[in-house]
Amino acid sequence: MFSDWPSELVPQQGWGDEAAISAFKDAVPWSVGRDFVAGTAKHLASSLGLTKPGPPIRSKIIHDKQLQVLMPALGYGLSFPLSEIDILRDCVSVYCEWLSALLPNPKSSVPAPILSDPNHYARIVINHFYYLFVPRGAQGPDVINRQAVLCHRVLRTLQNIAQNSPCLSEDTWQTLLLFLLHINSALLSPPTVKVSDESEGASTSSLSLNLTGDVAEDAGEQLCERVLSVLFETWLLACARCFPPPPLWNALRESCQRWRHRAGLIDQWNRINFALTGKLISFMYGPSFPEIKFSEDDLNIIPSTMSRDCIAQVWYRILHIIGNPVDLSRHTVISKTPAFLKYAISSELVIEPSQHPCLQMLPSIFLSAMKGVSGLVDAFLGVPNISLENLNQKGHHLSSSSSLSLSSEGRGEDSTRLLASGRAKCNSILHLFGPWLFEAALINCNMQASVGSQHKTDASGTAGSGSRRPVSGFGGESSRKSSDSSVPSEPQNDRLANLSPQHFQGGRAEALGALCRIFCSKKTGEEILPVYLARFYLALHQGLRQTDAIVTAHQEQASFTSNKYQGSKIGTCSETAASILVNGVDLFRLDLQGVVSLVPSVLGVLEGVLPEAEVHAPPHLPVPLLRRAATHVLLSILPLPLHFQGLQVKEVGCSSGERVVLSHLRPQLVNLLSNALQVETDPANTQMLLGGLLFCVQDAALCEVMDSISQHNFSADRDHNIMSSGASDTVSSHGDYNSLLDDSCETLPVGDSLGPVGSSGLSSTTSASHDSAHALFVRAIYLVCHRLISSWKSDVNVSLAGLELLSGLARLSIAEQDGLECKRAVKWLCDYIAYQCSRPARLHSKDLHSTIVAAFHCASVWLVAHPYLLHDKECLGTILEVIELGISGSKSQVKSSDAPRLKHEKELKPASMRVRDSAEALLSCVLSQVGTFPSVCGAESLSSLLDELTLLRHCNTCDVSDQLTRDAAVQHFRYFVAQNSIMLALLEQPLGNHQAFVSIPDPQPTVTALIRGPFGRVAWTLQLRHLARHKSSAKLYTVNPGRPLPMNDVGIKHNVNPKYFPDSVERIPLCKADKSIPSLESVMMVDEKSATEHDKLLQILDHQIAFEDNIRRQVEREITDYPDVETECVALPLCHEFQTARLLLSHFGFLSLDSLQESVESAVPSLVALDCSMAGFAKDLELLDTTNNRTIDTGHVFYVRAGQTNPHEILSNVVSSSSVHPHFLEFLGGLGWSVNVHQHPGWTGHVSTAFTVTTLPQDAPFDVNHGGSGFSGRTHVLYWSDALSEMAFVVPSPAPAQPNNQPAAANSVNMGIIIERSDGSGGGSGSEKSDSLHSYEVEVDQGSSISSHTSQMSFGHGNENRNRKFGRQTSALSCGDHKVYIVWLESFEDSYTFPANDLLSETITGRESTSWKDKEACIYIIFIHALTNGLFRIKLQGQNAKLSMAGPLIDGQVVSRRVLGTLVRQTALNMCRRKRLESDSYQPPHVRRKLRIQEMVQKYRYEMTEPEFYSHLFTSPLC
Predict the structure, then answer these.
(1) Hey, what long-range contacts does 804-807 have (CB within 8 A, 24 or more apart)?
(2) pTM score, two decimals?
(3) Tens digit of pLDDT for each residue in 1439-1474?
(4) Where are the beta strands (DSSP E) in 1405-1519?
(5) Cβ proximity of 720 and 748 under 8 Å
(6) Residue (of 381, 421, 424) closest to 399 by Cα position
(7) What number of H helices and E strands is found in the chain?
(8) Spatial CA neighbour of 260 closest among 345, 152, 368
(9) Which of 167, 572, 851, 1499 has the lowest CB atom count within 10 Å?
């Protein structure tokens, strides 16, 4: 930069007014001169007022000639030896006081001539100060400390003058700067005499430098930091006030290059560079760019008056002031100075300058310089919280950005944004620092490595043998000569022989880390020059080669350990390789051209880190962090072999033409993954590996399916929808599932970016049995189940991840599935549940129960996916035992030899109510879903689609109009609740089928039952038949047997009048008591009126007697006349009216007295009648029907074009297919199948359209050219379900324009509009939807207390209710407050600016709690970025809860196109499941339905006694 300018740094002998002082010194003898100087200095110092109290005395020096005599004497005094410390102190005091003439308020002791011309005399004083700093040779530490005290005082004085003097001239500034340069040269140019016993290089290099020996103290080492800081700070002041000329800059550059063996120079260089870079960045990138953190001492190091142009000039010049920092790794270059040559000549031992002991500090100095350059790189990249203190504290090659991105805590809310959005381009940073970093990264690298040595350790350690051409000064002739000429008996020479290129691997690793961070900061679409990419790949290839001495040492230690402990292996990783892994985790996630060529080299390093239980990592780098970085890299390269199956890769640095077929590396990758999973102990790393394992199995399975289909000669011209095959986990009743299967059977078009997937490309990969999908399936099951039981059971997050992986494996469709392996998987799951339940009570916690609940769910998934498992008696017994354990808390038969305990003998004491609920759910799944899912209603609904309205419309005896309401329909049914959990709606009228009265004259007793229970709604029609249907269809009654024959011999009939009293009763005499009642005759004789009434009574009796005699005679006549020819034996008429509800309840045993009475266990009888005529019954019944029996979740899909942050623009992207990525619609098809929200009986992502089937009068046509807006929820959504879960995927889009006379809420299903218009001001259907939503939320609040009360009353055994928190019903909906976003990004950088909170209004589903807007929403985001190579990069955001890291997708993972939809859907489902497990108030679907039924019992129960209940059964409902 200044090579054309001469340096103003004159030789030291000509500096410091040497002529005047020499003349004075030569004029008088030493003793006379000493006495004269001592007296003069003492006299002048006494007048300063420093040694005695009182004000300073005004100076009596009034003429310049007086100063011409005194100042040479004082300058001569400053050159005295340190034994004359008093004279030196007096001289320093006088000169420091005189320099106050340059300050605004000079001291009174300053002579008048100096006050008149302060700059002239100040230059003389500054020149004389030079002698004070000149080293006096070998001295003791006390003497050097005295000299240091005086030097510090001088430096403080000069620094104060430079900062506060208003009258410094240009000459004085240059003199001051030259003085600082000369004193630094005098102190720092000579080699360091004293080296610390504990070398700093030992802490920064893997090979320690053992330095011993007692040598003299070095004054330069003690004053190094101070003189350098004053030099640079004063230089910066001069740049702001009097910019130094080029000769001074050249002098500074030459001087600094002579001081590079001093560690303090690099420290001050880093300090000044950071300060200038902070100022430069602040005005280049604005205040929003991350600032560099400074200590309090460095805040004002840059003058505030320095202009921006000046800062830029000074920053660039200071940056290059030490020359090439890589020269610090070449001791032969650093020692090429006159001071080192002088030391070599004057030394007793004739050695070369490069053999000085102080050069052994170069490894730590080189590392410090590379840290400084690396810190500057981070500053330009916008890494937050960059500071010099952090740079010095952290371990080398571990930057703050890499530590944040790899930390397990760094995933909450995306931790912090690691890189600034307005950062410089990679090319710009490489223009500045690239030459240094590339050169440092290639230190001691053999650029002509032989083939096959890429992954093997070079035990020789050096690169200077044979014909190899080294890139470092260590390979030169001088270094080899010096090494050969070393004398073993000399301790210094022995120490020098230990200084090898391997000691500089720390600085090299730092350079490689900085390069990795630069290239990993590449933005989407950013171009990097090919020359930089080539040099970068070459540097990485050399850095990944395990040739460091650390590897050799570790191998020796590993071999010793393996000999001592057979079977144990220790992995190794060099410093450079570790730095590349930690800082280059994103290398394979970016669109870097040709990065695939590094896969063989990276794979060799991964094999030394992941598969081994113990890894020797470099110092200051935690092993879990290194393994996490290696896991990230492994997950990035997992999809490459199947994606680029036929691609041949030529490894970087390979001189031969041999190439590696990328698909041949897949077995190695799979083995590496499984081996790493066996030895990994860190929970975060284990979950990442589990996600990669599931991806491998699914990717292989789908790839084999596509390959087998292509072998059947399917047409290759059809449009292929590879990602939609992932949605085919479940069957749809509308035929969408079949269409997805058909689409997935197509082949890729020729030239597709995904790469060849035909049989030719896959045959070589999947032909081996160990690499097939079936083999991976079996290995994954065995590995995960074994580790789950052996070592993962105590970690909740790892256990959940393992169970999620097993659930994903259960849903895979593999042609060669082994039933035995599936049986083993279920058996292992049951053993896991049994073990967790049997743990001691003190270990039972919420997390433990969460794992048990997840295990029950996983077992349900396996049984539904593999129903044939229940055909195995052993498997069925195992499942039922675990269910019994979950429900009751113990098994009836622990061992096969034990006698089983009956149900009434066991205490009902489950592990927790959550465990009991999950066991009940598994039991229901076994009884009703396994082998029958999907039902005739399709996968969209597990319940019957029939309700009261539908049944009445098919009823024969009821005249039902089209305007029948639900309130009127329920009046035709009888409602009972059995066991306080099952609601029976009984219709006693025949339906319009073959049982109708008009078609068959003798109908059977028929009842239609709608059974609503915790697990859904079913409809049954029951008939009372005495014979089977096929037997009773021919003759429904007995044929007339004909007229019977008469029989006259009926026998003799004797008419005998019975006697009521014995005959002797009339002979008993009467007593007075018998005569106490008067006779009738006596009464009639006394009263005439009584006689008249008696006569009338006699007439009536006579008439009645005559009537009865007549009737008796008729009866006797009829009897006596039998048989009669006119009387026939006719069959009784058939009964057409049955009380079928009573018959049904009676036959099922519900009408016993015990069933109608309250028990000790429950306050509610076993059978309760409900009053359906009460207000609100129909609404609560509808609310019960809309309470789903499966978990329901919603994912909202957004498409973000490059640079978009406005919510309306983001929503508008999906209107047209031309504005989205070609694979976006394909990805949507992989999430689920399309359903019409008005004809769909399941979850639609919105409560206003869910669980109901309606017909719109005016249905808008479906736009087939949409870009995703067709699934906005207005007419269609994407839907997926299995036997346990439902999930709807909604693609929000702008609301369509409405006519002026039509309210916007009438046809809109956007929930944000409906909620705001809940007052009914809108028209038509929108108003009805808002009312229904409002009532839905209100009823949830009203029934909360009842549900809590009845639930606790329903269970009376044990202490099971102690931990049960039923809570409010709104808490059951609180899990709907979290949102799952699936965001497709065209530019990956938009993930940091995505307006998630602004889009919340577009994601309302109606399941949110009433206060969800008042609190911070929990948003989980899955970002998807399509790479140019056809793969997809995943970014997860928002997983900051305790149960975080829901899989199978991992943050930063790269996946293939064929499994993208499946993995995204599974991750979204698992996120929601984890959220439910974490919630304290969450209640499973069947529990919520059960509580709904119990609430209705409390509200609508008939309060009747047993007789009243029986009487009620004989009354008929309204018909």
Answers:
(1) 804/690, 804/854, 804/858, 804/1446, 804/1447, 804/1448, 804/1466, 804/1470, 805/690, 805/691, 805/693, 805/694, 805/780, 805/1447, 805/1448, 806/781, 806/858, 806/862, 807/857, 807/858, 807/861, 807/862
(2) 0.80
(3) 666 666 788 999 989 999 999 999 999 999 999 988
(4) 1419-1426, 1432-1437, 1454-1455
(5) yes
(6) 381
(7) 54, 19
(8) 368
(9) 167
